[in-house]
Amino acid sequence: MFWYLLLLWGGISAVEVQRPRGVPLSKRPFYEENKPFTCLDGSRTIPFDRINDDYCDCQDGSDEPGTAACPNGNFHCTNAGFRPTFIPSSHVNDGICDCCDATDEYNSGAECQNTCRELWRKEKESMQKLAEIAKEGFLLKQQLIQEAKRGLEEKQTKLGEVQNSKKDLETNVEALRTAKEAAEQPEKEAKERHLKAWEEQNAAIRMEKDKVRMAEVFIELDADGDGFVSVAELLSHSEMDPDSSDGSFTEAEAQELLGGVDKVNTAAFETIWSKIREKYVSESNTDGPAPVETPQEEVREPVSDNDSEPYPDDDIPEEEDEDEDEDEDEDMDDGDYKSPPVTRTDEKKDDSEEGAMPPYDQETQNLIDAAQKARNEFEEAERALREVDDQIRNLEKEISFDFGPSSEFAYLYSQCYELTTGEYVYRLCPFNRVSQKPKYGGSETNLGTWGKWAGPEGNVYSVMKYEQGTGCWQGPNRSTTVKLTCGKETVVTSTSEPSRCEYLMEFTSPAVCQEAPDLEVSDIHEEL
Amino acid sequence: MVPVLVVWLALCLSGTWAVDRSNFKTCDQSSFCKRQRALKPGESPYRALLETMELTNTRLTLQLINDNNKVRLLLELYRLQGNMTRVKINELKPLKPRYEVPDVLVREPPTEPLSVLSQDENGVVLSLGVESQRVIVSAQPFRLDIVEGHNVLMSLNSRGLLAFEHLRMRKDTQAEPEAENKEEADTAHQAETTKEEEEKVEEGMWEETFKSHSDSKPNGPSAVSLDFSLPGVEHVYGIPEHADTLRLKTTDNGDPYRLYNLDVFQYELYNPMALYGAVPVMLAHNTQRTTGIFWLNAAETWVDISSNTAGKTVFGKMLDYVQGSSETPQTDVRWISESGIIDVFIMLGPTPKDIFSQYASLTGTQSFPPLSSLGYHQCRWNYNDQEDVRSVDAGFDEHDIPYDFIWLDIEHTDGKRYFTWDPHKFASPKDMLQGLKDKKRNMVAIVDPHIKVDSNYKIHNEIRSRGFYVKNKDGGDYEGWCWPGNAGYPDFTQPDMRAWWASMFSYDQYEGSMDNLYTWNDMNEPSVFNGPEVTMHKDAVHGSWEHRDVHNLYGLYVHRATMEGLIQRSGGVERPFVLTRAFFAGSQRYGAVWTGDNAAEWDHLKISIPMCLSLGLVGISFCGADVGGFFKSPSPELLVRWYQTGAYQPFFRAHAHLDTPRREPWLFGPENTALIREVIRQRYTFLPYWYQLFYHAYRTGEPVMRALWVEYPQDPATFAVDDEFLIGRDLLVHPVTEEGARGVTAFLPGKEEVWFDIHTFQKHNGAQNLYIPVTMSSIPVFQRGGSIIPRKLRVRRSSACMEHDPYTLFVALNTRRTAEGELYIDDGHTFNFDNKEFIHRRLFFSNNVLSSVNVAPEAQFTTKSWIERVVILGASKPRKVTLITAGKLKTAVCNKENKVFNVGCSFQVVLSVLHEQCLKEAPVFRVKIYFALFLFADGHKSQLDFDFDASVSVLTIRKPSMNAGEDWSMALQ
């Protein structure tokens, strides 16, 4: 037991201020020699010799600052020459060197070297390096802030200008709209006239054709060629059964069709013709009705995994491109008056024999040309207005975008940065998207589009989050976390995939540099 | 159109997460199972030819004849030491030898003499020696009954389902007679038989296809089958591995339980489908007796279970006939294997612990694992690179969570070439391993048995050039698809292949390995992605045997060869740790198993209990399930509950699929981190108890994680319990496995028992269902009154960091105010314990005296660990507590280096004096801090401080400080 008793007494060095092992200077007053000790949580009071006696008496562990006896205790490493620190009591005498001054391993047999000065030297070096970077970076950052400020002002000016020009454009659009409408009215009337004349002409042609057909049918029906169509002759055409549902075409019915008589001559047939015209089937035309189209057997197969990818692997167009596409689509749709009428009639009229509508006469054509010109001018003005709207939207978006407290990140907007690894080229376009493309061919994968600033509270602008990238098999959509650290250059320094489909990028930028941290070096502590 | 649509619908309905059952055979799709299961009971064609009986000192032999085809069988009957009977049945003269499973029995089981008690023309009665136990051999129809007094313990072929498909020539043409292999004198008979047989040729006897795979079956039908009746038995257990309840179900209305090691993707629960491992051992239990059946056959096996008490009136009638009674409950089981012979060990108990010792005497005990492997294991598919490993390791320290092992899955290799490292991600594995070693932690890297076919890969080239690959039916190297793409499968059934494999683990062969790198064998069913049922073709060839014969043994051999490699690399000094997914009877000798690729679902958490309990019953104690669930992502609640359950199961490893989000313990917010930290720390406090239980398992074969009925065999209320379990006999665990649980109802067994909540020290009586309200931090765990559990409450970064830490003894008093327990200590990692380098003490409390007594005086070991605290639960307040030691301490103290410690000058003087005293070989002293001085106790008496908490009757004795290895006693007065 002697051995364990020995553990209690901390022998660090003769020159050190006497206090129980593992107690920081700041707490020394609580451990008054030879006086009863009250646990720091006040839960109980124990004799002084129970401090560091390798048995846990206080629930808060405060009676065993220098041993591993308490599960929740802390051991204070003085770390003379370096930064003092606390380690969990469980690290005391566990055979692993934790304190750089080796004071945590006073009875484990572990051979720990005092590395505090070496650590300090290294830390100083690296901190100096960091400080240099931070200093230069911070200067760059100031420039960036200035640039951003200028940029912002420019944009705001530009916005004002554009907004003004928008007003002019709007006036212009309205004027042109009126002009257009004024030109379209006579155009419309002339076109209607032209159409009406053409339709009348067509009607006359149709009537003539019908007469010819009637004569042909009479001859066809008059099977015995006696110049009359008789009931009997009519009966051979069962399709003319007025109540075709009962399936029998009776003599009485036929007689009724003939207007109550047994037979009719050519003239009288004229009155009957209108009744049978639709039903009559020519004998020469024996083709049955067109076969009903049978739908093909549908063979359904399970959807393969590849097909279920919600996003195609190929390039996702840039946003700007998409906008343009949409514009084009709209243009295609709303062009009723632009298309020549000729092409439309093709579909509507099944009687193609009538031919195309004759060209407009010169007068009409002049009116049309005038209207078209007015329309074109109007559209042109409208498009210009839309473009200005887009410009305003983009400007407003950029102006209101969260580019950091001093807009120091604004310079990243619409830029892209690449990093090439063994297999892939990674591309970070800040505030837009992150992607990955195989180095040796293959399609690009979206690793996420701009989501939000996602740093911890107090340092929100240290982490960017890109979300909703291409989906993963049985997993989430890809996403990327971008960690920003201070650097002179704006570079992607590393990428990794710590969890499936969750990417991590390290990104340096002067925009995250802080005022030179001189303070931290002075934090190093050289006790006594 | 219609079939297409149906298939499409089926795919839709089955969903993404269910097992694709169509990948695996039902009994009907396995031709031998279908044939055998079609046999009707009560029509046994087998007759014992009593005149052929031969009795030697060690065995009885007897011929059996099948009256339908006149094929003769040879029955061998052995009485084995330790109350077991072995029954072997083989063809008397098989066309070619039939496979007899080697390497599973630890030795040829020693026999005891059998003697004939009586004999007549209809049977023979043999004495089994003990307790008026006899075997009755009935001649026609042949059956065996094992009886004790007037009770039938077990009957074989009582339902007449013995079937033995003799090897035969394929009758492709009528011209070729097949008769020369037979023994009959009567040619007329023979002709008749031949004719009968021809009629019996069924589809699937000589060729069988499943899905697109065909099995050429060059040996034709070769199945064996036998039925067992268990009068008085309603509960049967064992035959793992199945994702089913602890108590086995009857199989009349579905498929039999299947034993065929398979890599089942996303397995479903509560069904008899085969899984990764197979142990053909069944335990039968009632309040009077426990018996066991060990069916030593490594081929595909199906086990049918029926019971007359499960409402089976048809069987009931027949069983009544067998039993001559209509009252007794009875369970009937039937084993069907595709090839090999019948070799069955009947273990007659009578207690559960007798069964464990009987089975252990046949197949060995659980290997004694290194202490560190009982700590917490952090695994994931995959830790991406060295930096990832470093940062996860640092995360544990940052969050003050202990762990002992970090694991690397297949991605750590260079293109799935095992024994190699990815040159970019793991460029300097030794640096990584050293970094872990500096924190006294370890690593496991995976080594699977499929070997990439790649002429630039040394391992492949060596195996190919040495002819060590399994062959296909045409004699070429068998190849299949697995992780590396095209792969060969080493023939681990060959001893020289295993020796070569083991040599690959030596430090000079396995580049980048170090002594803190251990091994994980996955995919050793073996898994063959493009093979039938995702495994190897049955007509693949292992030397002179078909894969059909050895299938269930393959994983055991892989495990064994790997374990031998780890032992050899240390010159036989260090204990190995190897985890396997596939296993067989005897695998317990080689390391740990886990329950394979489970899922992050509450039911999967629940099933981990019966799955590990079933394995424990058949000798495999080192069992665990992937904490958190392998597939899918657990909710934080499920993850926390899983940690709480896993921390109280033997093998404690978190694991996750590649496609799941990260789930290291600190990724779910500070509250969940704290909950997980707390439970992992609880695990570490109990490590001395776990270790001692594993020592016991190694010595006796008793399971570490125990079904309740094992300890309470006479209480039927325990027989089907599988939502709680015992660790050893002294800890009862009822984990919370329900989502959103507000409380659990735990069954506290034992009329005489009291149980103490380990967290609140509240006392509860046994033989009750106790409702326990729970919060997220609750893990209902109880210590049995009457037990003493040593714990180490100073939880550190890893188990090795805690090696020299002091113990706290938790003494839980029973109603007689007594308690007992043990303390086992050794170096924690070498085989030196086999050379008696350990401390084994018995702790007991009675008459208000707690004592520690050496139970292994011949053993020698010294420990720095001491007793820092004794907590007595259910105590009353003493006036004083006196410690009496025998005086062994002085060497331990005075051999220490001569250091002077001080805490201020006033004490330094005192201590110097004390130290001098020590140097003068003064009598051993004891220090009493309270008086700020020391006293020379002369190794005898000292008063101890204590606290008494009257509200829960807990007495805490402060710092008795005796060394854990010495004799002492402590009196409460």
Automatic annotation (TrEMBL), chain A:
Residues 281-364 are annotated as: Disordered. Residues 304-334 have a biased composition (Acidic residues). It comes from the Eukaryota. Residues 414-515 form the MRH domain. Transmembrane segments: none annotated. GO terms for cellular component: glucosidase II complex. Residues 145-208, 364-398 form a coiled coil. Residues 209-244 form the EF-hand domain. The keyword Transferase applies. It holds the Pfam family PRKCSH-like. GO terms for molecular function: calcium ion binding; kinase activity. Keywords: Calcium, Coiled coil, Disulfide bond, Endoplasmic reticulum, Kinase, Metal-binding, Signal, Transferase. One of its GO terms (biological process) is N-glycan processing. This is Glucosidase 2 subunit beta. The lineage of its organism: Eukaryota, Metazoa, Chordata, Craniata, Vertebrata.
UniProtKB/TrEMBL annotation, chain B:
The keyword Repeat does not apply. Residues 701-789 form the Glycosyl hydrolase family 31 C-terminal domain. This is Glucosidase II alpha subunit. Residues 76-304 form the Glycoside hydrolase family 31 N-terminal domain. GO terms for molecular function: carbohydrate binding; glucan 1,3-alpha-glucosidase activity. InterPro entries: Gal_mutarotase_sf_dom, GH, Glyco_hydro_31_C, Glyco_hydro_31_N_dom, Glyco_hydro_31_TIM, Glyco_hydro_b. Residues 172-202 are annotated as: Disordered. GO terms for cellular component: glucosidase II complex. Keywords: Glycosidase, Hydrolase, Signal. One of its GO terms (biological process) is carbohydrate metabolic process. Residues 172-198 have a biased composition (Basic and acidic residues). Residues 367-693 form the Glycoside hydrolase family 31 TIM barrel domain. Belongs to the glycosyl hydrolase 31 family. It comes from Nothobranchius furzeri. CDD domains: GH31_GANC_GANAB_alpha (cd06603), GH31_N (cd14752). Residues 1-18 form the signal peptide. Pfam families: Gal_mutarotas_2, Glyco_hydro_31_2nd, Glyco_hydro_31_3rd. SUPFAM superfamilies: (Trans)glycosidases, Galactose mutarotase-like, Glycosyl hydrolase domain.
